[in-house]
UniProtKB/TrEMBL annotation:
Organism for this UniProt entry: Kibdelosporangium banguiense
The protein's name in its UniProt record: F420-dependent oxidoreductase
One Pfam family named in its UniProt record: Bac_luciferase
Keyword Flavoprotein annotated: yes
SUPFAM superfamilies in UniProt: Bacterial luciferase-like
UniProt KW Oxidoreductase keyword: yes
Length: 297
């Protein structure tokens, strides 16, 4: 079982970046397999859509460190651990700039980058970056086309609905060949179909609790495998990375039991704990140590 942990990047953690490099090194020394960043640009005062099915935006989102900068920064202070994005909201970014950054990040990390993309859920965030939210699925598809071209061809060119790239030389390529792994978040039929057609893996999320039921994981995995087969792909090549999001009242044992149940019932072999719920780096490291010891034994 591979186990990872998020980088503390929101809320109180965002005001103490000076502690984050030491945290990343400690997580790597612990033996963990991966470190993760997430993407947030706004904390609307009056949100149209709240976070995770609520009517509100968590106070922690009032302060957020940039995920792209963190990937590069942490890549320079670690040696072994995989560094991933779960998830970048790809439709917010011009794909040519995203491709340049992700290529650079894979080089900085020596081929340790995992790219995870999603489409987000906040109308206010889309409005703030000048992108129509109704185009998010089409823009993600086109972004994936451009990233694939940027990483695997030279010269690169693209003529699409949203972006045009004239023929251009791109001789700098990622360390990983033909490209870094691409994972997609998916929670609806259209996104399951996209993941089955285009992704190396799926990025679901769970909230651990005493009554956690992994049935949604098995259902999602089945749906994506079915879509992969329809697309002529081998479904056995698709991976699943589980994000574990604790909430107030979640115990360490809830987290451990949830991960174990996901492994037993859904075949999950890579999970990571979001530690941003915890107020201090020291607390996050303590919880990470307990979870790692229990899961890896």
């Amino acid at each position: 079982m591979r186990i990872g942990f998020s980088l503390p990047q929101v809320g109180a953690h965002a005001h103490h970046y000076d502690q984050l490099p030491a945290y990343a090194k400690a997580i790597e020394e612990l033996g963990a397999d991966s470190l993760w960043v997430s993407d947030r640009v706004l904390a609307p005062v009056n949100p149209t859509v709240g976070y995770a099915g609520t009517d509100e935006i968590p106070e922690a989102f009032h302060s957020v460190l940039d995920p792209l900068a963190l990937v590069a920064a942490v890549g320079t202070v670690t040696q072994r651990v995989t560094i991933g994005t779960n998830v970048l909201i790809a439709p917010w970014y011009p794909p040519i700039l995203l491709a340049r950054f992700l290529t650079t990040a894979d080089i900085i990390t020596g081929g340790r980058l995992i790219t995870g993309f999603g489409t987000g859920w906040s109308p206010e965030e889309y409005a703030s970056v000048g992108v129509p939210m109704k185009q998010r699925g089409a823009r993600l598809e086109e972004c994936l086309d451009i990233l694939d071209a940027y990483w695997t061809t030279n010269p690169v060119q693209h003529q699409g609905e949203h972006w045009t790239i004239p023929p251009t030389y791109v001789e700098l390529k990622p360390v990983q060949r033909p490209r870094p792994p691409v994972y997609l978040a998916a929670f609806a039929p259209a996104s399951f179909a996209r993941a089955g057609r285009r992704a190396d893996g799926w990025m679901p999320m769970m909230v651990p609790s005493a009554d956690f039921d992994p049935a949604f994981l098995t259902a999602g995995i089945t749906a994506i495998r079915t879509e992969a087969e329809k697309a002529g792909r081998d479904p056995d090549t698709l991976d699943t990375l589980l994000r574990v999001n604790p909430r107030p009242g979640t115990t360490v044992q809830n987290i451990i039991d949830g991960i174990e149940l996901a492994r037993e019932k859904a075949g999950i072999n890579h999970a990571y704990l979001d530690v941003n719920f915890y107020r201090h780096h020291a607390e996050a490291l303590d919880i990470a140590g307990q979870v790692y010891s229990a899961v890896r034994g």
